Structure formats: structure tokens, C-alpha cells
Amino acid sequence: MGKKHVWHFSRIGGINRVNLESGSDLANLESLDQKLWTALSCPVAGLEIDIKTLQLIDTDNDGKIRVPEILTAVNWILSIITNPDDLLKRDQTMPLSAINQNQPEGKILYSAAKQILANLGKPEATELSVADTSDMEAIFANTRFNGDGIITENSTDDESLKTLINHIIASVGSETDRSGQPGIGSAQLETFFDLCTEYSAWFQQAEDHKENIFPFGEKTEEAFTLFSSLKAKIDDYFLRCRLAEFDPQSTETLNTMSDIMASISHQNVSNSLQQISEFPLAKIEANKSLMINTPINPVWKDKLSNFFNIVKTQISDNGSTLSEDEWNKLSALFEPFNRWKSEKVNTVDSLGLEYIRTFLSSQQKIQLSSLIEQDIALETEAISVIQVDKLVRYYRHIYTLLNNFITFSDFYTPGYKAIFQAGTIYFDQRSCDLCIKVSDMGKQGSMAPASGICLVYFDCFSKVKNEKITIVASFTAGDIDNLTVGRNAIFYDNKGLDWDATVIKIIDNPISIRQAFWTPYRKISTMISKQIEKIASVQDAKVNHSSSGFIENSSKLTDPVTKAAPFDIAKFAGIFAAIGLAFGAIGSVLTSIISGFLALVWWKIPLAIAGSILVISCPSMILAWMKLRKRNLAPILDANGWAINAKATINIAFGSSLTHVAKIPKNSKMNLNDPFSKKKRPLVPVLLLLLLTIIVSVSGYFYFFVK
Predict the structure, then answer these.
(1) Buried-most residue among 107, 423, 524, 565 (CB within 10 A)?
(2) What's the 3-state SS for 331-368?
(3) 279 and 298: one domain?
(4) How many CA atoms does the CB half-sphere of 603 hold within 13 Å?
(5) What is the pLDDT of residues 267-288, one digit of tens each?
(6) Rounded distance, CA 115 to CA 122, Å?
(7) Domain that holds residue 402
């Protein structure tokens, strides 16, 4: 049995976390108990790390990265590179020398990496970056075949095949080649061939039944077009004639146009062709044929004349008279052509019958199929190029992911940022570095309060990106007095782009012990202010009501019949008695408090005052201290789709490093002469001095004269 790997642990954030200090640690991750991992899963989206890397690790494409997928990714890259310790460097580029060519897959990937550099015009380069391998279009731009089974016009030197490829793209669509160019695959080629075959067969049908389908020879198409535009109007004419036969008295009504004529007579008639076209085709009479030599509706006359000239062999009087029976026969005569026309394959019609039949009889389909097969034959090499991209991304980002998945060391290490930290928010003379993108506000609302952190949620909008996001910022220093919904801030993402931010929600938790000391007084002050505002509002309403009543009563006094109400002495006596009772109660309380203090030995009075302050503030401070020690980031991350396996504690010391309060720089010069400061009011200092004098005098009296 081999020697067991020795793990090293550190106490970070109140939790024992494993140290990933060497490539050996990475190679032995499978032996590390999952219970010791800080996270068991994390989302693919919304993190400050290359998303393509996360997508490659997420082999089941469920949007989550779990422990087995992490282990698979680590084991794969360790099997490719020579020295696992290289991963700990987090280098921006991967040297080709890092690839283990003694391993079969490593040898293939090394060759593919060299080919990539050659395709990019850097054959002498010795290292690759993510920027190099991610530009697939540039990598395959100058290659005829790239293993994706798609060929473009650049895949051949034959001009006829180039033209054919473009025809296929125009007819049935395209697929994007790895070079970024539009191309075709086997599916497009087969679809195009089938359409051409159908078109040729469709036209062959007409050639086999030429007399039936083309009754008017080359003029059949033109005749059918005129027939289609005239059919409804001619049908209407013959129906009106039959109605005139049925009811001779209706003839005048069927011919009447007076109303429409009256409506258009005052305007340019050429602008009223639509109304004129609605007139009957010709004068309506019972059992009357349609004659071209009689007055015809001018809108329809030319079309009707052209139609009669083409179909004259099928109508009476050498094409000048059309009976209803002849019209019905003509309609039936066009039916085979209409049916054949409806079966036309329109997608390849523009190519023409000659080109289509030439293509079908040639070897061009076989030639294109051969090109596609040549492209597919390079699939292994092309996949190797894609695998190189995967290798470079893992080399660059895998250790960062591990430090944010297994240990959270990036979060707790000064100078680093965790992958869930989206940027910095500037608000209320503070900058907060612990800002996290929110994926689900509903879950945040139910889970985040358990974190014990003062959280402020912002809606952020970027004009540059025309994008909106929601973030949650953890405020771990300063106070909460000015944190209100609706205020604006500025958010800077990790790329330095600024976003307009607006507060949409606040979860109030202690920020500091100093703030907790003043919290009871702030609450008392708020309560008193609200009560004063309430009493003032009520009194203001009473005054307004009394004023209006006084005016109303004054108007009544002008009436000699109305008498003023007698003065109620008992009522006002009761009011004054109540006021006196209230002041008496307040005075009794103050007397009891002062008497209690005066009954104390002089040196106990300051202690009593200090004790009173502590009695009020101490519970709040103790509670805040306990909460501040237990602040936990885990509920916030869990609400974002993480599965946190251990606490992510933010104690007082660490919290102070995440939120920075504005400080005047050292060696700065300060002008304290503020022209807009409040004017000094000596009354308050005088009263305080008088109170202090009384306390000292009373204490001296007790000390020197009372024994």
C-alpha cells in the first residue's frame, strides 16, 4: 500500500480549510473527503471567471459544477501537463513545453498547438494564450478543411463547384464553417439534389402532357395570369345577367352607378380607379354575352382585350364575344395548368431548367460529397485543436476555481477577489468590495437575512452594455443612518465599467459595535420625533378646524337671531386641571430621579450616569457583538445557486477589510472655517455648564457638610 498523502490545513474564517499548496495536493484531490470541501456545487453563470472554462467542466450541461466534474477536469489536465505545480502559477499563457509529449494525447495536443500557432501566423511562438485558442475563425481561416463536415467556396479551386456551392446556399440555406464562413454539409447537398430532381420531374410532366397543360402554347402562362385577374369580375358579370333574367325589374338597379359617380365626380377621377373598378364589367342585360366591342369598364378593358386575343380560338365571333358556356369551358381548360403550377418547386426555380438538368446529369454532386468526406477525415485533428483550447483554459483558470470551490482562500486572502465578487459599489462615503450578482431575488429574500450581514440590494444599469443586473452589497463598516431605499450609487465591475445603481431593498443587521451603542438612542429619538410629528399634525388639524369654526360662528353672529353660546367655566377648568395633572406627574418623575441621584455619595453620581448608559446600550452592543462574530456569507451564496458545505464567516476584523469608509489622507490641510456652518447658540453650552455646576456643588455639599 502506498504512502498516504499528507494534507495541510489552516484555520480560515473560523473553519479548518485544506491548503492547496502543490501539484501533489491537486493530484490527490480524490482522496480528500468531500465533507472538507467548502462548496459542493456552484453555478456556471454569474461568476467572475472565464465562463467557457466552466461550461467545459460542466459535462452534463445542467448549469451546475459539482465535485465529480471538478475531479474529472483536474485529472484530465494533470494527465496532459508535465509538472502539476505549474497550475499554481495562474499564468496568463501556457508554454508549449508544459505539455507532456511522452503521453499519447499530450503528443497529439502538442502537434495541434504548433499547428494553431502556424495558422495564426506565429510559427516561432513557444506559448499559447486563451485569446489565441478562442479565435477559431482565425485558426481555421486559411484552411480548406477543418473537420466539421462543412465545405465553403474556399474548399475547392473549381469555379463551377464554387458557383454550385453558392447556389445551394441561396436555395436551401447554409451552416457556419469553423472558419466563420457560410458553407454546406451533406444535409444541404442532399436537400438541394432532391429539390432539383423534383423540379426536373415536375417540368417533365408538362412536357409529357403538353397539349393538356399548355392549351395556348407559349401564351398559356400569360393567359392564365389574365384569367386569374379577370375571373372574379367575369363571374360577377354573368351572375348579374342571370339576376336580370330572373327579375327584369332589377336590371336598372344592377346597372346603377349614380351614387358612386356622385361621390367621385368632384375630384380627379384618375385617383378613383379603385371605386371605378367596382362598377359592373359591362352593361347588364338578361342572357347577354360579354362582347369586347361594346362599352367595357375602362379599368378592365385592356386586360379583357388582351385575354380575348389569346383565347380567341375558344370563343365566338373570332374572339369578340364570350358566352357564359364558353367562359365555363375556358375555366375548365385552365384547370390542368393551374394544378401543375401549384406543384412547382419554387426554391430552385430561379436557377432555370437547363442549369438544373445539367447539374443532375453531371458528376458535381459526387465531387462535392468527396470534398465533404475530405473535411470529415480531419475531424480528429480539428477536435485536437478544440482540445488545445480546453487545455489552455484549464491551465489558466483551474487553480482559481479550486481556490474558490474547495478552500475559499481567494476570498480570505488580501489582494485577491473571490469569483463571486462582481465589483465595488461606492455609496454613502463608503466603498464595498463584497458585491455579488443576484440570480433569484425570491430566494435572496427568504435566505439572506440568516446571514446576519447588513445587506443592500441595488438595481444596476450600464448604458455602454445596455444591460441591467441586480447585485447585493455587504456593508460591514460605517453606520446605517443614511441607507434608504431609492438612493443612487455607482457600481464598478471588475473590468472597470461603471453602472448606475439604485437601492431597492435593505436587510438591516448590525454593522459595528459603535453603531449598536447608539442604536437604542436612535430608536428612542425616532420614536419621539414621530410622536411629536403626530401630535403636531393633530394639533394643526385642530387649529385649522377651530379657525374654520370660528369664521363660521362669526358669520352667524352677524345674524341678529343667532345668540353666542355661553362660556363654559367648568369645561375650561377641567382642561386646566388635566394639564396641571400632567405637569405634576412629569415633575414627580423628575423629582424622584433627581432625588435618587442627590441621595447618592458624590462620587457615585458619575458612576450611576455611566451605569444608566450601559444599561441602555449594553444589551444592544452584546447582541451586535454576537451577530458580528457569526456573520456568514453562505446563505447569500446558497440563494444564488451554490451548495455551500462550510461556513463562510465574516468576523469583525475581516469585515472591516471588505468595506472602506472615507478617510482624509494623511498630511492633508484642513480649513475649519465653514461659512455655512450653524450659528453658535450659547444657550445650550450655558445650560450644560449650569447643570455641571449644580452637580459639582451638590457633590461638594455632600462631601464637606454632610456626614
Answers:
(1) 423
(2) HHHCHHHHHHHHCCCHHHHHHCHHHHHHHHHCCHHHHH
(3) yes
(4) 2
(5) 766 666 777 777 788 888 888 8
(6) 10
(7) 9-142+379-412
